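hiii so um. not sure if this is the right channel but i have a protein structure encoded as tokens and i wanna go backwards to a sequence. like what aa goes where. can anyone help
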């Protein structure tokens, strides 16, 4: 019969997105008890679902997951079996898997049973005699190893611009994406399930409520192109709604009188355009790691691969010590 050896090494993971949760899950399964810090109120990072008091919901981050590797496919299958994911019948050739009841459901599934400290923004990482001091508002805690899974441009916020790891990831680029969430009268037109058009300022429009296990009808998500998002990123959410809503109404063939709800979200670091090119960065002693989708590419699976690779490296190192 298999058993898990409890391991006393203190490991902190900064970020509870797909990369951080995957790494934490693997380490926890091997007997570690990693502490996962996330500044957000929920977990999942860009696997995000916005819910309104009226019962509307929108996946305003990642739209769906696709699997290229058998191992990631197996994870999605396991999530489906657990009721945390399902196939989205959106007419695509490739299987599009979505979290249930929202994309954040995937993150919640991975995070089950982990020590996740939500609503804590880590402000600094400093080398101390017996490890790394993880600093946050109101305190600090020392860990033997730290795994940073925040977007690459934010690594230097924690380590300082001159830290070798900040310099190592400095060339990585993530493009912004402004997302519009809108709900219409259920009788308003629903001309398609998804629409992708790289020449349109709204490059992606999805009938979010057509995904499985969504209760509210006629909820839509529209993503602006990188060019449009970059040009308008600093506008207020209300100003963004005012610009994007007429475009969405036009593409749907409806008018604004059928609108029930609208909001905009600004993702400053949405999609990787220049990846690191390897699954993670680390210091020589193996006490500090950095990873996330930005290591390999703009996909949920890339974040998963990075988190897996970091965990494997830590496990290999600790078994050889
Ligand atoms: C609009 C949009 C659409 C997308 N569509 C798709 C899609 O359809 N399919 C697909 O495969 N991928 C898609 N992606 C990309 C996908 O969402 C990402 O590749 C993946 O979720 C990244 O996971 P991650 O763990 O690397 O990073 P994140 O999910 O960004 O996780 C990082 C976490 O770190 C936390 N954090 C940051 N700074 C701190 C700090 N100082 N202290 C504590 N916590 C901190 C954040 O709160 C966050 O939870 C999309 C992304 C966006 C934004």
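sure thing!! here u go:
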């Amino acid at each position: 019969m298999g058993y898990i050896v409890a391991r006393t090494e203190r490991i902190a993971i900064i970020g509870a997105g797909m990369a951080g949760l995957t790494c934490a899950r693997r380490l926890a399964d091997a007997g570690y008890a990693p502490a996962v810090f996330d500044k957000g109120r929920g977990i999942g990072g860009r696997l995000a679902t916005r819910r309104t008091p009226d019962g509307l919901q929108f996946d305003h981050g990642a739209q769906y997951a696709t699997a290229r590797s058998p191992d990631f496919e197996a994870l999605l299958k396991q999530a489906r079996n657990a009721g945390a994911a399902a196939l989205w019948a959106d007419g695509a050739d490739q299987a599009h898997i979505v979290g249930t009841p929202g994309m954040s459901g995937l993150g919640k599934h991975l995070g089950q049973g982990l020590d996740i400290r939500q609503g804590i923004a880590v402000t600094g990482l400093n080398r101390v005699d017996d490890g790394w001091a993880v600093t946050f508002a109101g305190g600090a805690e020392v860990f033997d190893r730290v795994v940073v899974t925040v977007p690459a441009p934010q690594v230097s916020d924690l380590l300082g611009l001159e830290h070798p790891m900040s310099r190592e990831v400095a060339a990585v680029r993530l493009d912004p994406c402004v997302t519009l969430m809108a709900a219409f009268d259920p009788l308003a037109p629903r001309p398609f399930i998804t629409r992708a058009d790289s020449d349109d300022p709204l490059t992606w429009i999805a009938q979010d409520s057509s995904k499985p296990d969504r209760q509210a009808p006629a909820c839509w998500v529209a993503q602006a192109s990188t060019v449009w998002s970059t040009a308008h990123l600093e506008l207020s959410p209300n100003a963004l709604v005012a610009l994007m809503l007429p475009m969405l109404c036009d593409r749907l063939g409806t008018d604004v009188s059928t609108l029930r709800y609208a909001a905009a979200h600004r993702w400053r670091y949405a999609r990787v355009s220049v990846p690191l090119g390897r699954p993670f960065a680390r210091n020589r002693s193996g006490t500090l790691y950095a990873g996330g989708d930005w290591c390999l590419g703009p996909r949920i699976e890339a974040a998963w691969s990075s988190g897996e690779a970091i965990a494997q490296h830590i496990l290999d190192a600790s078994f050889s010590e």
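oh and The mean pLDDT is 96.
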